[in-house]
């Protein structure tokens, strides 16, 4: 009898547990276990009291989340709402790309992650106080990706003022970008929409839509929910008509009256939206009016999300490691100049860059993500095209307080002076050489038509070469992107230069500086050694030997037959 | 009633928190908070008195810093703009000081006729300090042909962060539930734009004009703690002035403030 | 069923063993076998086959019979023609692919352990010989657990202020700067790392970083900073305590076998 009771109890509990799991808000009650996991794995950044002030926070940007304010960036809920438990769980599981928040899927068990969710919620009383579950963003009316939709979205991108921060083509280079701060007063940069792999909440269309509708709480990114849209409450056709009227220099009396009607309709819709936020219940008709208005908003938002989606590749390009090295393509005749369409025929190689944290001053919070490179060569010369995104064009008008050096954007391309022979031969130290010297091309934004040749045996032991002028340079900065074109002869007279030869694998590395991010001296982003090669022209022997060998083998077969036949006879 | 209790508690906690946060915290984080009564009952006031006075700045005021207008110059830089965190007029009159009753629990209702607006004309918030009753809607005006982004850095209420596109002349904002203040108002698009506001539970709040004058009218007779807050000079919430007002009478209380 | 001819069996053995070496083994040990190694094995198998068929004359004749037939028997005309087309075609394609193959860069640095110097130093100060040096705070683990905890906590602070960018929040070598570095940062959660080294070895690698690696066994290409420029001697010992405390792995102590 007793056993049966226990079994029954367990069944009921099990059922309850399943129901709890199925429920949207499914974190368990906060427990000691959650605290323990939090303190072992989270507290060093987020602080033991959840204020985002752990000891590691100092060198991090974006800063670790302060949990005491209940402001969460990545939510599936509407603006001003708390996140769903699932949102918190997903962030812990997947992490936040482009920040120092890693995914914990492999290092914490599912249960532990849920425990942490429950524990994190204890830092903000709002979770306990809120009686109704957070309102989730409705994803039902998704408009699928099409060129038409992207085009509509592009118009909205301008109309809604996205360009102010995210820039004309989305590289995060808007004119307001350098002055942004978050809710805690820390500097923050708008997302580079062409680098979807840095989106904190993921780069899929739904994620973009959610960020857009729900805003990114605590950051300058506003929520474009409801009445932030132009002509909220009007249908698409009405809005178009009103825009026509508004763009007229002078309206007739009839037009005045017509527009006034539109304004009244809009005011009424905004009123309903505010009532809803303030918690005033809407009547059925009001709800209908509001829903109709929101339908237009959601439609527009999907178009915008599709447009943003169109700006970036699905995934980060594969980095130029292994056999995916930078191969300079052979061209007969002259090499293309910077704006030549010939460059379009090449696929660029992607070189990710990381903050330099080896030598003081260090850069813990880089703003330059990567540099993309293309190259052509002919019998005498080689040309490179480097492109990299930088949200600001800084040319050294301001100087760094500690070093006194000008703060400006720059790029350095690094080769060894002598190519290491064989796979075990040492390369120079990856950061501007050491015992073995490196040969550098150093370009600075303040002298955009010039690349300086430098020889270095370490960061404090760099020398500008006496013989300059061997490099031809062109560069341009547009819409948050630098383009740098460099051309040099394969062979030079200067013994301190690297001499290039087709088919030889040459180590190559990069350093880049973003003046607006305080980059100067060793405070920069950089790469370790990658590989570059002047791809040899495929040998014409490939048309000679194979047929020769085929004919030879046929002859051999016949010969063999003859020999065997003769012997049989 | 319970709301105000909670608000008071939250305020207290916030104050503790603010003083405890690390130095790198924002300037908005170090603001001394206004003090609100636990509860307030609004009704009609007959034979109330008036509290008025002048707030002056002690010493010589530093010259106002000209703001650097970094974008939309055609519209935003049409007139010269100055940092309004310390506006000192003739006779050292201190503008933009909030003067208010700390411990009033009963009194008049809000004047519904008062326009609750902040204009963003010329990429500048006018007025620089705005008082908004709890629950009332503040309307943001945008008659410039530029985009603005209204960012209200509340911490007790939910922060507001809404784009006001260039064609949207009026944008009303939802009323809030809890008393809170002062709260910074910024525009992320135009980083120099700055204003302050307070969501208040009772109408006995005044903001000093360019002559440094303030007036609180229809105050029920009695003795009150009179508080002030100024963006650059801080507040007296630790040691407020005590003022006694008689029915139909006028009490005067002047303040002299210096930089905190 | 007709018995397979010796020639066919040999052919099947050859192709079968090649396929196993090329595809199956690589799948089991998760790294494909290098081409040169496969060639060596195949050579051995061919020699074995040759030895086998040449042991007896009858066997050898048996082996050659299908070849003879194909070459001369008039009943085998179709097969002869197929062979006469296939073999030259195969050779044509094979030679072309060898000649037209584009060169690939030398492989990435080896994943071998560097040999440490005989003497352990901090900056220029000698701490002791690599063999005898012990973590000066290790004894607290038994003597004074509170002091030990304080050192581990300090190590935790040092780790998350300096190391986790590359070595990761979870000490698994997957920090947010890690994926773009070659070679990848060390993974302390790998059971083959901490238990194989003495604490002194870790001190040496932390203190001297990539530039401190020996001239032998290059190229190392490590991006590890010279941490003695940033950290105190005690901080390095503390972070070593933290590494073993967090992962649960014990460092090798002197006297244990390799």
Question: Could you characterize the architecture of this molecule?
Answer:
The complex is a heterotrimer of chains A (569), B (260) and C (258). Helices cover 31% and strands 16% of the residues of chain A. Chain A is α+β, with helices and mostly antiparallel strands. In chain A, strands 1, 2, 3, 4, 5, 8, 9, 10, 11, 12, 13, 14, 15 and 16 form a 14-stranded mixed β-sheet that branches. Residues 15-24 of chain A have low confidence and may be disordered. In chain C, strands 1-2 form a two-stranded antiparallel ribbon. In chain C, a hairpin with a 2-residue loop joins strand 1 (119-122) and strand 2. Chain C has 258 residues and is mainly alpha-helical. The radius of gyration of chain C is 30 Å and the shape is elongated. Chain C has eight helices and two strands; from the N terminus they run H-H-H-H-E-E-H-H-H-H. Chain C has helices at 6-29, 35-53, 57-72, 77-100, 140-143, 145-167, 199-208, 233-247, and strands at 119-122, 125-129.
Describe the sheet with the most strands of chain C.
2 strands, antiparallel
The first-level CATH class name of the largest domain in chain C: Mainly Alpha
**Secondary structure category of chain A:** alpha+beta
CATH top level label of the largest domain in chain A: Mainly Beta
Low-confidence stretches of chain A: 15-24
N/C terminus separation of chain C: 57 Å
Per DSSP E runs of 2 or more residues, the count of β-strands of chain C stands at 2
* Oligomeric assembly: heterotrimer
The helix content of chain A, as a percent range, equals 25-40%
Sheet-strand content of chain A, in percent, reads 15-25%
Based on DSSP secondary structure assignment, what is the total number of beta strands of chain A? Answer: 16
CATH architectural type of the largest domain in chain A:
Sandwich
Task: List the topology elements.
The complex is a heterotrimer of chains A (569), B (260) and C (258).
Chain A (H helix, E strand, L loop, with lengths): L1 H21 L9 H10 L1 H4 L38 H10 L15 H12 L4 H4 L17 H13 L3 H4 L38 H10 L21 H11 L6 H26 L5 H27 L15 E5 L18 E4 L1 E2 L14 E8 L3 E9 L5 E5 L6 E3 L1 E7 L21 E7 L6 E6 L5 E3 L7 E7 L2 E9 L16 E8 L11 E2 L3 E5 L10 H24 L1
Parallel strand pairs in A: 1-4, 1-16
Antiparallel strand pairs in A: 2-4, 3-15, 4-5, 5-13, 6-7, 8-9, 8-14, 9-10, 10-11, 12-13, 14-15, 14-16
Chain B lengths: L1 H19 L20 E2 L6 E9 L15 H4 L21 E4 L4 E2 L9 E3 L9 E5 L4 E4 L6 E5 L7 E5 L5 E4 L6 E8 L6 E7 L4 E3 L5 E7 L2 E9 L3 E2 L5 E5 L4 E3 L2 E3 L3
Parallel strand pairs in B: 1-4, 2-18, 2-19, 5-7, 6-12
Antiparallel strand pairs in B: 2-14, 3-13, 3-15, 7-10, 8-9, 8-11, 11-12, 15-16, 15-17
Chain C lengths: L5 H24 L5 H19 L3 H16 L4 H24 L18 E4 L2 E5 L10 H4 L1 H23 L31 H10 L24 H15 L11
Helix pairs in contact in C: 1-2, 6-8, 7-8
């Amino acid at each position: 009898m007793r056993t049966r009771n226990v079994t029954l109890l367990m069944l009921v509990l099990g059922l309850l547990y399943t129901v709890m799991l199925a429920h949207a808000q499914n974190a368990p009650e906060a427990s000691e276990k959650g605290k323990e996991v939090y303190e072992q794995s989270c507290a060093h950044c987020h602080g033991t009291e959840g204020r985002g002030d752990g000891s590691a926070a100092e060198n991090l940007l974006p800063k670790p989340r302060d949990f005491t304010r209940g402001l969460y960036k990545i939510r599936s809920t509407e603006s001003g709402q708390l996140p769903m438990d699932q949102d918190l769980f997903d962030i812990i599981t997947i992490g936040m790309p482009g920040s120092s928040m890693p995914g914990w899927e492999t290092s914490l068990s599912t249960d532990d992650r849920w425990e942490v969710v429950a524990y994190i919620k204890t830092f903000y009383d709002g979770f306990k106080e809120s009686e109704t579950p957070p309102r989730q963003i409705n994803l039902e009316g998704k408009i699928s990706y099409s060129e038409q939709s992207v085009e509509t979205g592009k118009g909205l991108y301008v109309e809604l003022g996205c360009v102010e921060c995210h820039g004309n083509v989305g590289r995060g280079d808007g004119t307001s970008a350098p002055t942004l701060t978050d809710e805690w007063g820390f500097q923050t940069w708008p997302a580079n929409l062409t680098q979807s792999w840095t989106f904190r909440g993921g780069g899929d269309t739904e994620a973009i839509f959610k960020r857009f509708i729900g805003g990114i709480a605590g950051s300058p990114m506003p929520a474009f929910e409801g009445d932030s849209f132009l002509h909220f409450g009007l249908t698409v056709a009405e809005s178009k008509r009103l825009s026509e009227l508004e763009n007229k220099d002078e309206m007739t009396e009839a037009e005045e009256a017509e527009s006034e009607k539109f304004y009244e309709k809009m005011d009424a819709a905004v009123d309903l939206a505010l009532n809803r936020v303030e918690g005033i219940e809407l009547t059925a008709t009001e709800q209908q009016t509001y829903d109709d208005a929101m339908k237009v908003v959601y439609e527009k938002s999907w178009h915008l999300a599709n447009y943003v989606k169109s700006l970036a590749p699905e995934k980060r390009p594969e980095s130029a490691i292994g056999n995916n090295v930078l191969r300079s393509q052979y061209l007969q005749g002259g090499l293309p100049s910077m704006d030549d369409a010939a460059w379009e025929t090449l696929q660029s190689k992607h070189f990710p860059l990381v903050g330099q944290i080896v030598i003081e001053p260090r850069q813990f919070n880089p703003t330059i993500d990567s540099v993309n490179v293309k190259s052509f060569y002919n019998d005498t010369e080689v040309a490179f095209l480097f492109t990299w995104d930088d949200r600001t064009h800084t040319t050294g008008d301001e100087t760094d307080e500690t070093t006194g050096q000008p703060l400006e954007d720059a790029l350095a391309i690094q080769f060894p002076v002598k190519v290491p022979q064989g796979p075990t031969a040492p390369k120079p130290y990856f950061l501007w050489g050491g015992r073995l010297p490196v040969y550098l091309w150093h370009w600075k934004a303040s002298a955009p038509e010039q690349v300086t040749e430098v020889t270095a045996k370490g960061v404090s032991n760099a020398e500008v070469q006496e013989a300059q002028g061997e490099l031809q340079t062109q560069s341009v900065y547009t819409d948050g992107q630098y383009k740098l074109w460099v051309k040099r002869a394969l062979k030079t007279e200067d013994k301190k230069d690297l001499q290039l030869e087709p088919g030889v694998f040459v180590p190559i590395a990069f350093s880049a500086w973003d003046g607006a991010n305080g980059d100067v001296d060793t405070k920069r982003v950089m790469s370790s050694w990658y590989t570059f090669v002047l791809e040899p022209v495929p040998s014409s022997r490939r048309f000679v030997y194979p047929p020769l060998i085929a004919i030879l083998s046929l002859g051999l077969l016949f010969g063999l037959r003859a020999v065997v036949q003769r012997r049989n006879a | 009633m319970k709301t105000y209790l909670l608000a008071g508690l939250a305020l207290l906690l916030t104050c503790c928190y603010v003083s405890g946060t690390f130095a790198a915290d924002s300037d908005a984080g170090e603001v001394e908070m206004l003090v609100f009564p636990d509860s307030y009952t609004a009704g009609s006031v007959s034979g109330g008195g008036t509290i008025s006075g002048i707030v002056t700045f002690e010493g010589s005021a530093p010259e106002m810093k000209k703001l650097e207008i970094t974008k939309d110059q055609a519209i935003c830089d049409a007139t010269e703009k100055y940092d309004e965190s310390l506006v000192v007029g003739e006779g050292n009159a201190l503008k933009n000081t909030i003067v208010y009753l700390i411990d009033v629990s009963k009194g008049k209702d809000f004047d519904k006729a008062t326009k609750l607006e902040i204009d963003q004309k010329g990429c500048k918030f006018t007025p620089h300090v705005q008082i908004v009753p709890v629950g009332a809607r503040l309307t943001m005006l945008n008659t410039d042909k530029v985009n603005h982004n209204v960012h209200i850095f509340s911490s007790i209420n939910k922060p507001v962060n809404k784009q006001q596109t260039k064609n949207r002349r009026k944008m009303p904002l939802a009323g809030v539930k809890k008393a809170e203040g002062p709260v910074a108002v910024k525009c992320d698009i135009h980083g120099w734009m700055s204003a302050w506001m307070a969501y208040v539970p009772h109408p006995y709040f005044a903001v000093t004009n360019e002559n440094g004058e303030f007036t609180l009218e229809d105050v029920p007779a009695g003795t009150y703690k009179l508080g002030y807050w100024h963006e650059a000079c801080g507040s007296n919430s630790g040691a407020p002035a005590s003022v006694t007002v008689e029915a139909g009478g006028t009490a005067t209380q002047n303040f002299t403030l210096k930089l905190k | 069923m007709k018995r397979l001819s010796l020639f066919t069996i040999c052919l099947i053995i050859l192709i079968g063993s090649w396929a196993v070496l090329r595809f199956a083994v690589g799948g089991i040990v998760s790294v494909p076998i290098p081409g040169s190694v496969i060639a060596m094995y195949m050579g051995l198998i061919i020699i074995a086959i040759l030895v086998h068929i040449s042991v007896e004359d009858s066997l050898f004749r048996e082996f050659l019979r299908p070849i003879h037939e194909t070459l001369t028997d008039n009943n085998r005309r179709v097969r002869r023609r197929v062979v006469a087309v296939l073999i030259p075609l195969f050779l044509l394609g094979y030679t072309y692919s060898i000649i037209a193959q584009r060169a690939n860069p030398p492989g990435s640095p080896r994943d071998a352990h560097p040999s440490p110097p005989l003497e352990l130093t901090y900056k220029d100060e000698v701490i002791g010989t690599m063999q005898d040096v012990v973590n000066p705070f290790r004894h607290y683990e038994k003597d004074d657990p509170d002091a030990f905890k304080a050192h581990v906590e300090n190590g935790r602070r040092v780790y998350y202020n300096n190391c986790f960018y590359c070595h990761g929040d979870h000490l698994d070598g997957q920090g947010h700067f890690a994926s773009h570095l070659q070679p990848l940062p060390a993974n302390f959660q790998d059971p083959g790392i901490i238990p194989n080294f003495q604490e002194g070895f870790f001190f040496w690698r932390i203190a001297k970083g990539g530039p401190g690696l020996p001239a032998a066994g290059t190229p190392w290409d490590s991006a590890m900073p010279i941490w003695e420029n940033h950290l105190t001697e005690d901080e390095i010992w503390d972070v070593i305590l933290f590494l073993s405390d967090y992962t649960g792995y014990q460092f090798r102590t002197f006297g244990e076998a390799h």
